[in-house]
């Protein structure tokens, strides 16, 4: 059983679902039922005695696990979910969308036919966390008959009062925000994110930077629910949905890159490299490994940048702590990586950066007589940088000096912009973001003895 987020179902001898639950770590959670039965409560022991089969569904995020769990409980009405609830019914999210001033509350009974309900949810804390995050983006009223004056949540930026009572325009915007919240709870968070990104870019182009920063903070607040979202029914119809998603991402990426002569047959192992430094000091490179489209943390490595002149490509520069040079540091990291011949070779290498980083990486591969397809992902507009000339061509003068490729140089690149909803772009971005996260974490754990350096 994998140590991944998902939902588990316990079935009895007749194939009936008797309990459904969610977990961030399926392996650990399910195992906890069987390790020491003496520590279980009486009701839980009875449940365990009736388990004959366990089904699991791996999902993409905590939010998906939360909603899928609620879907299963509503669909199967497992008897032990009810019995283990200590005589309390599960909570639901209630939205009075038809009210003049809609409010959002948590309830245990769905009594109002005019309201919209989401749930039921067994885990109250998870629901509150989701609503807390959403409220940072779209402030809402959380009580009925709210007094038309300032409240504590207004001072925290979480309630739109009293503006919605005093301004018709504010009231219209508030109702639009309520509709956005409903869309998020229906699984349309990625569309909301895209709309916020467009709004941010428009504000930036008009040099309204303070307003753009506010939108960026909203985007950041929603980050944990912007992972690819799939409705509970999709998982119910196809328990292998996550595996199928990963396979689709890899196959589409293979097809995309092969259009530019890469001749990929498999992406069973992908390595991605990122360089991070803190104000020019403590520079580090990170290597993350994805196997079959899934991250494999046990094979991650950090490379503490040594500086000095590790190779002729440095042209006499010392980039250790004085003047960090991302191109030279990327070159050092890759040279050291390929000294480890005992490590499995990747099918594809991704570097975080544009033409300059890709050029440096290609030169390292050439020096080590390694022939591995390589691409870059430039942050601006998430552009995929693909070299389309053979890697044995000599570098241009600009590339040897670690400057980005310029038009007319001998080495040519194709810059590819994939649609934002492209499965292959999602795969590349997920890998790049993981490499960035892993590199940044080095600075947070600089004094930790557990870091692995190569």
Would you summarize the structure shown here?
This protein has three domains: 78 residues, 3-Layer(aba) Sandwich (GIY-YIG endonuclease); 96 residues, no CATH class; 200 residues, Nucleotidyltransferase, domain 5.
Task: Please tell me about this protein's structure.
With about 450 residues, this protein is α+β, with helices and mostly antiparallel strands. The chain has three domains: about 5-85, 3-Layer(aba) Sandwich (GIY-YIG endonuclease); about 90-185, no CATH class; about 245-445, 2-Layer Sandwich (Nucleotidyltransferase, domain 5), CATH 3.30.420. The protein has 16 helices and 14 strands. Strands 7, 8, 9, 10, 11, 12, 13 and 14 form an eight-stranded mixed beta sheet that branches. Helix 5 runs antiparallel to helix 10, helix 9 (about 190-205) runs antiparallel to helix 10 and helix 13 (about 325-335) runs parallel beside helix 14. The radius of gyration is 26 Å and the shape is globular. Residues about 310-325, about 390-410 and about 445-450 have low confidence and may be disordered.
Can you give keywords for this protein?
454 residues, GIY-YIG endonuclease, 3-stranded antiparallel beta sheet, Nucleotidyltransferase, domain 5, alpha+beta, 3 domains, 8-stranded mixed beta sheet
How many H/I helical runs? Answer: 16
Number of separate strands: 14
Oligomer state equals: single chain
CATH superfamily of the largest domain: UvrC, RNAse H endonuclease domain
What does the average pLDDT come to? 79
Task: Choose one word for the global shape.
Answer: globular
Largest sheet: 8 strands, mixed
Helix content estimate: 25-40%
Name of the CATH architecture of the largest domain: 2-Layer Sandwich
Overall tally of structural domains: 3
Radius of gyration, in Å, reads 26 Å
Distance, first to last CA: 31 Å
Structural class: alpha+beta
Strand % is: 15-25%
Spell the H/E element sequence.
Answer: EEHHEHHEEEHHHHHHHHEEEEHEHEEHEH
């Amino acid at each position: 059983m994998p140590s991944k987020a998902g939902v588990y179902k316990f079935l009895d001898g007749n194939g009936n679902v008797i309990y459904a639950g969610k977990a961030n770590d399926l392996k650990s959670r399910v195992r906890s039922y069987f390790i020491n039965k003496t520590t279980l409560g009486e009701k839980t022991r009875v449940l365990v005695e009736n388990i004959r089969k366990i089904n699991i569904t791996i999902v993409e995020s905590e939010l998906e696990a939360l909603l899928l769990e609620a879907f299963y409980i509503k669909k199967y009405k497992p008897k032990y979910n009810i019995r283990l609830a200590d005589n309390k019914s599960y909570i639901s999210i209630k939205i009075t969308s038809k009210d003049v001033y809609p409010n959002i509350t948590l309830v245990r009974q769905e009594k109002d036919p005019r309201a919209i309900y989401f749930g039921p949810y067994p885990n109250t804390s998870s629901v509150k966390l989701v609503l807390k995050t959403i409220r940072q983006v779209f402030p809402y009223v959380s009580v009925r008959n709210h007094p038309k004056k300032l409240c504590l949540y207004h001072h925290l930026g979480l309630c739109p009062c009293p503006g919605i009572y005093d301004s018709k325009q504010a009231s219209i915007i508030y109702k639009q925000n309520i509709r956005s919240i409903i869309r998020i709870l229906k699984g349309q968070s990625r569309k909301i994110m895209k709309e916020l990104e467009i709004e941010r870019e428009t504000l930036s182009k008009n040099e309204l930077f303070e307003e753009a920063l506010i939108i960026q903070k909203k985007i950041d607040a929603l980050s944990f629910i912007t992972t690819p979202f799939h409705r509970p029914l999709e998982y119910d119809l196809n328990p292998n949905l996550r595996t199928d998603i990963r396979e689709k991402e890899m196959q589409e990426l293979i097809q995309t890159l092969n259009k530019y002569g890469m001749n990929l047959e498999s992406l069973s192992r992908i390595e991605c490299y990122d360089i991070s430094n803190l104000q020019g000091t403590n520079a580090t490179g990170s290597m993350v490994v994805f196997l079959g489209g899934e991250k494999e943390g046990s094979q991650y490595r950090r490379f503490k940048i040594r500086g000095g002149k590790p190779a002729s490509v440095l042209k006499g520069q010392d980039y250790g702590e004085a003047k960090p040079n991302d191109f030279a540091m990327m070159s050092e990291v890759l040279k050291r990586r390929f000294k480890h011949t005992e490590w499995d070779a990747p099918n594809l290498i991704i570097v975080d950066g544009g033409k300059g980083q890709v050029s440096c990486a290609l030169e390292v591969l050439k020096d080590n007589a390694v022939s591995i397809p390589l691409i870059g992902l430039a942050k601006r507009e998430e552009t995929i940088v693909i070299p389309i000339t053979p890697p044995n061509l000599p570098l241009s003068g600009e590339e040897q000096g670690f400057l980005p490729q310029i038009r007319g140089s001998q080495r040519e690149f194709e810059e590819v912009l994939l649609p934002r909803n492209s499965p292959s772009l999602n795969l590349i971005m997920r890998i790049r973001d993981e490499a960035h996260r892993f590199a940044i974490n080095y600075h947070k754990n600089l004094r930790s003895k557990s870091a692995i350096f190569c």
